[in-house]
Amino acid sequence: MKDSQNKKLMAIDTGTLVVGIDIAKSVQWARFVDYRGMELSKALRFNNTIDGFKRIVEKCTSLKKSYNFKKIIVGMEPTGNYWKPLANFLIANNVEVVTVGTFQTKMAKSLDDNSPTKSDAKDALTIARLVKDGRYSEVYMPDDIYAELRILGSLRAQINDKLYAVKNRIHNVIVEYFPEFTSVFKNPFKGKASMQILKNCPFPAHIVELGIDGVLAEIKKSVKKTVGKQKAEQIVKAARSSVGVSYGMSAAQMKLSMHIAELELLQEQLLEIEKAMDVALIQTGFSETLLGIKGIGIVSAANILGEVGDFKRFENERQIHRLAGYNLTENSSGNNKSGTRISKRGRKRLRSVLFQSAMVMVTKNDEMKSLYQHLKGRKNNPLKSKQALVVIAKKIITIIYKLVTKEIKYEAKLVFNNFRTKQIEETLKAA
Question: Does a structural domain hold residue 143?
Fold first, then answer.
């Protein structure tokens, strides 16, 4: 951390023009300072258009020439997606771009005038002075296959959210009109038989009217293999004793049909995205390496690479832990000392993907399973399940970093050093 901070401070010298920009949907404000934080010009207001972008570049170039600066560094908050077009334009024009966290700006802006007053021009100056103090993050905007993976991962997450929502809406209709349905079909969305019934005869009145033979015939329209008569008997019996409401059935069936159509569309889109992920993952050249890790699938591998980008751009795996917000923090004062916890200051989706991957790997990967059991069962400082999963998530990053940077294949015997192996063996024996 200290080395990283020193590098950033050293990057801001007497030959650096520092620019702070407050990002908004339509209009931006820019402030210009030197390495001491002294303002060099009036605040510049410019539009979020190509003409506005050209104007800020021209202003920076003019000040650079006037003060004999050797380089320009522009800082901005990564606000939504509004900052990306400007950042991309500046980078294309050989201007270095960095980001400053929104929380940092909020905390620092009262230092200038001892006032919490907020204005776009004031925020721009605060950002500029944070940058000159080295309190910024370097920008990584993937423009190759990693950009494709990042977008695909984000899109898949959005589709999954929609799937979750539409399943809830379908479930609400079932609960109101045929609550016994889930006692026969535990997961209504998993089997073809249950979906066929929901599409064509979803309510008790329909089921009773069809009878056992009618329901069986309906199910066979979607399921080729022989379906047991017992399932048809169960659904008819449940329908005859159902406590579901019987009003508004025509409208309710229309509602249910529309939700099911949306569900099927989303499922098709999800498959399409996952196929694209597979193709993009192969293009990275690391597909076989990552899929060689037992417990890592196409989706998790694609998501991790999409969120991290090129692993080789990092000096060590700890930088990726920090990127995910998995670095440990501690609050202490005097004799009071809190326990350590993860910072959660990083890419939320990366942290989520890693945690989900950890949950899979502790069941499918023997090495991660043994490490998980050791972490929870060791005598000194045993961890809770969630804490142990965080350690596993960090271990996943470490493994992938080593494999990618050293260009080697996954080998179980190389996952742990001798000391860790001995620890795990002793814990498992004691258990």
Answer: no
Show the domain range for 46.
2-138
| CATH at 104 | 3.30.420.40
Do 106 and 198 fall within a single domain?
no
Q: What's the pTM? A: 0.85
* CB-count burial class (<10 Å; 0-12, 13-18, 19+) for 292: middle
Tell me, yes or no, whether 115 lies in a domain.
yes
Q: Are residues 380 and 294 part of one domain?
A: yes
Burial code (b: 16+ CB inside 10 Å, e: under 16) for 319-351 equals: ebbbbbbbbeeeeeeeeeeeeeebeeebbebbb
In a domain, 281, yes or no: no
| Per-residue buried b or exposed e for 403-430, using 16+ beta carbons within 10 Å of the residue's own CB | bbeeeeebeeeebbeeeeeebbeebeee
Choose the final residue of a domain: 94, 117, 138: 138
Q: Across the chain, what does the average pLDDT equal?
A: 90
Contact call for residues 258 and 162 (beta carbons, < 8 A)? no
pLDDT value of position 1:
45
- % of the chain beyond a pLDDT of 90: 72
Place of tokens 């999963």: 389
Question: Residue 328 forms beta bridges with which residues?
Answer: 342
pLDDT at position 226: 60
Based on the fold, state whether residues 134 and 10 are members of the same structural domain.
yes
Write down which residue in 117, 138, 159 finishes a domain: 138
Higher pLDDT, 109 or 295: 295
β 96-99/71-76 pair status: parallel
